[in-house]
């Protein structure tokens, strides 16, 4: 019996059948970002490899002003007034 061998698209380590794997399931990203017909470029051995591959990073709200300087600020109470 032949064994399927799959590798992480980021670190290229083998992903065994006993391990869980990560993949992007968003259809837009699958079509626009990943190229391989067999999906081999959308298999990752860990969340870290997936996030590194698509350049996803975490930020704090302290970073928000620097990264998105044009975001509109609203008064905290404005939202509550709209609910009445």
Helices and strands, with pairings:
Elements: E1 6-7, E2 14-15, H1 27-32, H2 47-53, H3 61-67, H4 76-83
Antiparallel strand pairs: 1-2
What does this 3D model show about the protein?
The chain is 33% helix and 5% strand. The chain has four helices and two strands; from the N terminus they run E-E-H-H-H-H. A two-stranded antiparallel ribbon has the order 1-2. The chain is elongated, with a radius of gyration of 20 Å. By secondary structure, the protein is mostly helical. Strand 1 and strand 2 form a beta hairpin.
Main sheet overview: 2 strands, antiparallel
Number of separate strands: 2
- Overall average pLDDT: 84
* Count of DSSP-assigned helices: 4
By secondary-structure content and strand pairing, the structural class works out as mainly alpha
Summarize this entry quickly.
The protein is mainly alpha-helical. It contains 4 helices and 2 strands. It is elongated.
């Amino acid at each position: 019996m032949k064994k399927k061998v799959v590798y992480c698209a980021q670190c290229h380590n083998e992903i065994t059948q006993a391990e869980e794997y990560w993949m992007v399931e968003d259809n837009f990203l699958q079509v626009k970002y990943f190229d391989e017909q067999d999906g081999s470029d959308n298999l990752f051995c860990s969340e870290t490899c997936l996030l590194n591959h698509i350049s996803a990073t975490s930020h704090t709200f302290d970073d928000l002003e620097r990264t998105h300087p044009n975001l509109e600020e609203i008064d905290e109470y404005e939202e509550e007034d709209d609910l009445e």
